């Protein structure tokens, strides 16, 4: 009996210890975040306006050209082309409209399917439905959180057949017209392999680089590999125009089409109003571009601050068990738009506790987006096996990432 009691006490002790050990990862992560950003209120991603913003906004007002034409729009587009190396840039009202036009001008139309990662922001999938096409959800891989090229190739081999040169989904009979490669949190996807797939299966590649201004794949800016690339300048992105986006392309003809269709398809004339197709009022306003010009001047400095912030987090997290800070992929340079923690599989069950503890303490942290494949409006859409996306979405946590966290006076 004594033996039994001792055994029981031992088991009980072990149980009590595990109860104490459990919240350690919660505290450890909270403290590591606080070592870097302090204990006050900190948002996930805030813009900073440290340059010529007011000067350019005032100059814009003085010209009275505040809407969709003006010198700031031209300058912003030129500066973006220079920074990204894209031959042509069309600035638009937001990243979502940029995606819509990129897909439309890639020939996406009714009854088509478009390959889209399930782990993405909702705009990627929404833009497909704006073209009356269907998103077809594909798996991501755990290093870049971008589309898993090997799994996608195997899947397409098994599930498509070529009809008149086009890859057709054998279960729906629909053409797979395009794929949207999304560079998650600013980390470049495996572009080389994905471009090969696009070529082999005759699928047009569009890059959703909304999160990735300042990210490079093998020294070339992301968003310049696809038929089109798309950027966003929403208030939470690396630089902001209030609301805004851009379409990048190296193709002169596509550039002209994109410019035309985003400008209500108006045929240029000194006084006539003639529109030669259904167009969109998607051009960026000059006043937003004025803000953008000032922001672009600070981009290089912002990017270097974001990199320093990553290094600080790296130091803070290197001895925290059960979690990994995400680093840029091999041969890539990431803009580190959102710093990301990946919990070990066994620690995923503490995610919500971690989110609660950090948000209660004032440090804003966020879980991954709900997978597109699980949103009610997309439940009927075709999909491949998404086990990795599902597991990752339960293990990801974004932590405060603003460049201003590296400002001296913070
Ligand atoms: C921000 C974002 C967009 C575009 O967003 P807008 O708010 O419309 O500028 C598109 N895709 C992804 C992945 C994004 O993060």
Walk me through the structure.
The protein is an alpha/beta fold and 410 residues long. It is built from 13 helices and 16 strands. The chain has helices spanning 2-21, 24-37, 53-63, 71-84, 95-104, 122-130, 149-159, 191-200, 252-261, 286-297, 299-317, 351-361, 387-395, and strands at residues 88-92, 113-117, 134-138, 160-163, 166-169, 176-182, 204-208, 216-217, 220-221, 228-232, 245-249, 323-325, 332-333, 339-343, 366-367, 396-399. The strands form 4 sheets. A 7-stranded mixed sheet has the order 1-11-10-7-6-2-3, with helices on both faces. Helix 5 crosses helix 6 (122-130). The longest helix has 20 residues, at 2-21. The mean pLDDT is 95. Bound molecules: pyridoxal-5'-phosphate.
Secondary structure layout plus pairing:
Layout: H1 2-21, H2 24-37, H3 53-63, H4 71-84, E1 88-92, H5 95-104, E2 113-117, H6 122-130, E3 134-138, H7 149-159, E4 160-163, E5 166-169, E6 176-182, H8 191-200, E7 204-208, E8 216-217, E9 220-221, E10 228-232, E11 245-249, H9 252-261, H10 286-297, H11 299-317, E12 323-325, E13 332-333, E14 339-343, H12 351-361, E15 366-367, H13 387-395, E16 396-399
Parallel strand pairs: 2-3, 2-6, 6-7, 7-10
Antiparallel strand pairs: 1-11, 4-5, 8-9, 8-13, 10-11, 12-14, 14-16, 15-16
Helix pairs in contact: 2-11, 2-12, 3-10, 4-10, 5-6
The chain binds pyridoxal-5'-phosphate.
